[in-house]
Amino acid sequence: MNLKNCYNFQDFRKLAKKNLPAPIFHYIDGGSDDEVTLKRNTESFSKYDLVPNILASVGEPDLSTTVLGTKIDMPLFLSPTAMQRLYHHDGDKASARAAEKYGTFYSMSTMATSSIEQIANVSSGPKMFQLYIHKDQALTDNLIDRCKSSGFKSLCLTVDTVVAGNRERDHRWGFTTPPKLTLKSLMSFITHPKWTFNYLTHEKFELANVSHFTKKGSSIAKGVMEYINEQYDPAMSWKDAEYCVKRWKGPFALKGVMSVEDAKRAIDIGASAIMLSNHGGRQLDGSRSPFDQLKTIVDAVGGKIEIIVDGGIRRGTHVLKALSLGATACSFGKGFLFALSAGGQKGVEMILQRMKEELRRDMILLGKKNIGDLSKDNLAFRD
C-alpha cells in the first residue's frame, strides 16, 4: 500500500501501522482500559440515518462556516495532538501547512514538538493553541502570552486530563517521550529503518513549548501518563479556567465538556465555545461519546455558545450528522495523525482533501447548499 491508494481512515491507518514502530502506532491507536469508549465514539454515529431532499438544485455547495470568530473553508479542523514529531519528522509544521492550504484550523498542543513561534513562522493560517494547566503557574502564563504575541487566533483549555487515563497499550509497548529502546520495542525499531533513520537524522525531539521549564519528556524519557501525573495540576478548577479566559481576552474554548451543567458553566465564565470530547477515548473509559451527548447539550445551550464535536470522526457523513444535530463544527485527531504518519504534509493534505470531497458530495446528495441549511429534519433516529 502507498499514499495514493489511501481513500479513507482505515487506509491511512494501515499505512501508518506499516510505517511506525509499534509503541508509537499504538500510542495513536489506543484508548484507556478496555477501550469501550474509544470504539463507541465512532459507533454512535450509526444511530442516526441521513434523510435527503431531492431536486434541490444545490449546484456547488458552500462548505464554509465560522468557528471562534474565524471563517474556515470547511466545518472540520485538526484537533490538538501531542508529539507529532514522533509520527513524521516534519511533525506540527507539516500539519500546520496542510491546514492552511485547506483553509481550516491547525490546533497546537502544549506538548507539541515545534514551538509556538516556529509554527507562527511557517503558517499564516488560522491557529488554535491547546492549553493544559500546569502546577507551575508561570508556565501557564508564559504559554498564553506567547500565543498572543505569535498571532494565534484562539485558545482552548483541555479540562479532562487532570490525571492520566489508564492507557494499557502504552505500558505494554513501553511508550515514552522521547522514545527509548527496550527489549520489547527493539525489534520494532529495527524493522522500521526508514522511521528510525529520519528520527535520528532530523531535528532533535523535544517538547518545544515547555522544555525551558522542564527537561522531563524532552531530555529525560518519560511515559506520557507519568508526565501528566507529575506536571499537570490535579486540583484545576473553574477558577483556573476563568483566569485563562480573562488573561487570553479572545476566542476561547473549553475542551472536554460533556455535561449540561458544565456547558452552562462554560457560558458563565465567558467561554466562546465548548468542545464535546472524551479525549479520543483515552481518559475515562465507559464515558459517553460526544455525538451521543450532542443533542442533550444542544437542547440546553444551543445558540448560546459554539459547540464543537471532537471524537470518532471518520467520514464526511459523521460531520454532517453532527452539524444536523446542532454542532457548529467538528475536529478530528487520529485521522490526520495516521495520515501524517503515512505521508507527512502530503498525507495530511490528502486526508483533508478526501474529507472535503466527502462533505461536498454528501451535501449535494442531501440536497443542502449551505452548512446552515442542515438541521435535525434531515436525520432519523434508528430506534
Written overview of the protein:
The radius of gyration is 20 Å and the shape is globular. It has 383 residues and is α/β, with parallel strands linked by helices. It has a single domain, classed as Alpha-Beta Barrel (TIM Barrel). α4 (91-101) runs parallel beside α15 (334-366) and α14 crosses α15. An 8-stranded parallel β-sheet has the order 4-11-10-9-8-7-6-5. A two-stranded antiparallel sheet has the order 1-12. It is 42% helix and 13% strand. The two termini are 39 Å apart. The chain contains 15 helices and 12 strands.
Summarize the structure.
The chain has 383 residues and is α/β, with parallel strands linked by helices. The chain is 42% helix and 13% strand.
Outline the fold blueprint:
Layout: H1 9-19, H2 22-29, H3 36-43, E1 48-50, E2 65-67, E3 70-72, E4 76-78, H4 91-101, E5 106-109, H5 116-122, E6 127-131, H6 137-149, E7 154-158, H7 168-173, H8 186-190, H9 193-201, H10 224-231, H11 238-248, E8 252-257, H12 260-268, E9 273-276, H13 290-301, E10 306-310, H14 316-324, E11 329-332, H15 334-366, E12 379-381
Parallel strand pairs: 4-11, 5-6, 6-7, 7-8, 8-9, 9-10, 10-11
Antiparallel strand pairs: 1-12, 2-3
Helix pairs in contact: 1-15, 4-15, 14-15
Features:
TIM Barrel, 383 residues, eight-stranded parallel β-sheet, 12 strands
CATH topology label: TIM Barrel
Q: How far apart, in Å, are the first and last alpha carbons?
A: 39 Å
The multimeric state of the shown protein is: single chain
* Main sheet strand line-up: 4-11-10-9-8-7-6-5
Question: What is the CATH H-level superfamily?
Answer: Aldolase class I
Strand proportion, as a percent range, falls in 5-15%
Number of separate domains: 1
> What is the total tally of β strands?
12
